[in-house]
Write a structure and sequence with these properties.
By secondary structure, the protein is mainly α. It has seven helices and no strands.
């Protein structure tokens, strides 16, 4: 009986300790060649931004939300943090890093090389993401 109480006490202490920690997110490693990759599209061209916005609305907003806050209609179905595209973390990423993440995906996020097969169109989504900063 005493052994059982000790085991239960250790269990409660362990659970209590875990409740004060936050799970570490996996770091999304981007290959070096993407970190320095330059966006070949004109980020200020209104037609390019319109196309990027349209692609984002069709392919991304259901999870990431209209303003990129990670609050889309499907967000609750996802396991991980969907991010906030207006955040410094996203806005400080290079265009190549964002392009890689859109293209390859990971975990709950599909890669979009098939749904948005044109490299140029994925670059236009990167341009649109830049407009979502706070």
């Amino acid at each position: 009986m005493r052994k059982l109480k000790n085991i239960m006490l250790i269990g409660f202490i362990a659970l209590g300790a875990l409740s004060f920690t936050t799970p570490l997110q996996d770091i999304w490693e981007v290959p070096a060649k993407y970190k320095t990759m330059k966006n070949p599209t004109d980020a200020k061209d209104k037609e390019n931004l319109t196309i990027g916005k349209s692609l984002y609305a069709k392919q991304c907003s259901s999870c990431h939300g209209k303003k990129g806050w990670g609050d889309g209609s499907k967000a609750k179905e996802m396991d991980g943090d969907l991010g906030d595209f207006s955040s410094d973390e996203t806005q400080n990423a290079t265009d190549g890093e964002l392009f890689y993440k859109i293209t390859e995906g990971r975990n709950d996020m599909d890669g979009f090389s098939k749904k948005i097969p044109s490299d140029e169109d994925r670059w236009l989504v990167v341009n649109y993401l830049r407009t979502l900063k706070e």
